[in-house]
Design brief:
Elements: H1 21-43, H2 45-49, H3 54-63, H4 65-89, H5 106-131, H6 154-184, H7 187-199, H8 213-233, H9 237-256
Helix pairs in contact: 1-4, 1-6, 4-6, 5-8, 5-9, 6-7, 6-8, 6-9, 7-8, 8-9
């Protein structure tokens, strides 16, 4: 028997999407902010119960790998939980945002998608640097972890920088947000708006102050490809694979090879 989930065109893509464009954008922004705040509050409960001073708590939160890992984990779990609650509250469907049975086709789409992203990104950066002389492609990104970390301490870093963002961000942006937007507008505009919203927070991750334009360009191009793959497969898994592969390459470069 054939698996109908391998052909997204055989079903109504908007079936089960009970929210529109404005609701999608509002929920994404609200959930993003709420998850960061709640995770930040929860992570400080332990040191406060231990009676630590304010300076010690600040040092622990900013410099402890364990604290950073659990902060990221909490933020990602809260994000998914809030969006799932909203979808259930609106009597929507998780299947509608791409959480369907996986297919072998997700693997070649992940490989093709990553190669496509890489080629497009190199071309776009080359084009922009040729015409925008002030574009700094060597800006440093604030990751929350020291690149001198080694050994088993790299495991929680890998999970929080590679696995968790790939799952949560695809669920939130290419799943929930993109589904709501394309229900209310042409797909090309849904793709562009999804990518702009996805890229916006990455502009604020500069380790040297100012906007991190190169990260914004990178994530915008990545999102264009991820939205295309989401449309072609009707699922989120290939996009998660692309996202994880991209982050894995960055992780190896930064933490194993120590290449900026």
């Amino acid at each position: 028997m054939s698996d109908v989930t391998t052909n997204p065109k055989s079903e109504d893509p908007n079936q089960g999407v009970t929210w529109g464009a404005l609701s999608a954008v509002a929920v994404v922004v609200a959930v993003f902010v709420a998850a960061q705040l709640f995770a930040g509050l929860i992570i400080t409960i332990y040191p406060r119960l231990k009676g630590w001073s304010g300076s010690r708590i600040s040092d622990w939160v900013n410099n402890s790998i364990g604290a950073e890992f659990f902060y990221v984990l909490l933020a990602e779990v809260i994000t998914i939980a809030l969006v799932v609650w909203f979808i259930r509250w609106r009597k929507g469907s998780l299947r509608a945002i791409g959480l369907k049975r996986a297919s072998w086709q997700d693997v070649p789409y992940a490989v093709l998608g990553y190669i496509s992203y890489l080629v497009i990104y190199i071309f776009v950066v080359g084009f922009l640097t040729a015409f925008l002389k002030g574009l700094n492609v060597n800006q440093s990104q604030q990751l929350g972890y020291s690149q001198t970390t080694s050994g088993l301490a790299l495991v929680p870093i890998f999970i929080s920088l590679v696995i968790l963002p790939a799952v949560t961000e695809e669920f939130l942006f290419r799943g929930f947000l993109f589904s709501g937007l394309k229900k209310a507008m042409p797909k090309v505009w849904a793709i562009i708006i999804t990518s702009l919203i996805f890229a916006s927070p990455h502009l604020l991750e500069s380790g040297s102050g100012g906007l991190l334009w190169i990260a914004g360009i990178d994530t915008f191009v990545l999102s264009l490809v991820l939205c295309w793959v989401r449309e072609k497969t009707g699922r989120l898994y290939a996009g998660m694979g692309i996202h994880a592969l991209k982050n894995t390459v960055a992780f190896i470069s930064l933490f194993l090879l120590h290449v900026h």
